[in-house]
Amino acid sequence: MTNPSYDEIEFQYEDVERQLSDPEVVADQAKYKDLTQRYTELKEFVEKYRLFKSLHQHRLDAEEMLNDPEMKDMAKEELDDIDQQLHSIDEDLQLFLVPKDPNDHRNAIVEIRQGTGGDEAALFAEDLLKMYQRYSEKKGWVFEIMSQHLTEIGGIKEVSFTVSGAGVYSELKYEIGTHRVQRVPATESSGRIHTSAATVAVLPEVADVDIDINMKDIRVDTYRASGAGGQHVNKTSSAVRLTHIPTNTVVACQDERSQFQNKDKAMRLLRARIYEQQLMAQRKKESDLRKSQVGSGDRSEKIRTYNYPQGRVTDHRIGLTLHALDKIMQGDIEPIISSLIKADRIEKLKSIAK
């Protein structure tokens, strides 16, 4: 059993594989990078498709065994098992045909902000930061703090960080929204459960060539960096604030000792935020696309609840509940993200079929 669309993708994979072994292509860094990315995208599909074809051949062999009275029962069991595998793999192959988000290959800039709940919300924001840092380590991604504003008790008012690696944005984009926590705060003597929240924004990191920003439209302010509670930690004006005047977008970075380094980080963040504004404007126009997505990309949307007394985490977009809060807070969020990716692709596949 073959599928023309599947065969075409397999041919593309083999063609990319051949090009990657060409010395001239290897010498062209930009082309080699693009082909390597395409190779990675196609590899998982092709491996599944080849398994699909192999299983189908096994099925034909098992059908022949039905004619043997002594092998008939065993052949029926084998056919049932093969059919289940073929159905599951075919579903995965169909989902692969769903058009990809053009930003999926990008690195991500993640922003976490303290929401409702006072000090407890700031502590929860810090917990989320650690969760994403641990997940990044498990994935082999590069994690870098860009800017952070701490509270006096050690929590986080807001933090921005970059995560770099293969397909980072394709996974972390599902974290956009309001994360709610239900637990007894350490400062609560009566043992009452409080509900607090933190918001997460995930922006695709873009380069100069991806978005045109006129430097004449940016106002640059420098000032002294300060720590939690306003205590100065730098006696020189190394902190940088950038204001994009046309959109009134403001970003600031102060964590590096060098003004140049802070300005560089601030520019990366500014580009990402302006690009995000353009994406949101585009999504509003594409109402049909928004309906076929799991989550709107709106950071005000309540997406997940972390319930400490019951040790469970619930993602409200797909009704997924896992009783593994400890593991999840240690960075084991792969089961949630993989479920969201699959649900999103299924919804988009339904939209295409209409």
What does this entry look like structurally?
The chain has 354 residues and is an alpha+beta fold. It folds into two domains: 4-96, no CATH class; 108-348, Alpha-Beta Plaits (2-Layer Sandwich). It has ten helices and eleven strands. The strands form two sheets. An eight-stranded mixed sheet has the order 2-3-1-5-4-9-10-11, sandwiched between helices. A three-stranded antiparallel sheet has the order 6-7-8, covered by helices on one side. Strand 9 and strand 10 (312-315) form a beta hairpin. Helix 1 (4-20) packs across helix 3 (29-65).
CATH architecture heading of the largest domain: 2-Layer Sandwich
- Biggest pleated-sheet summary: 8 strands, mixed
Distance between the termini: 26 Å
Number of helices: 10
**Total count of strands:** 11
Low-confidence stretches: 228-232
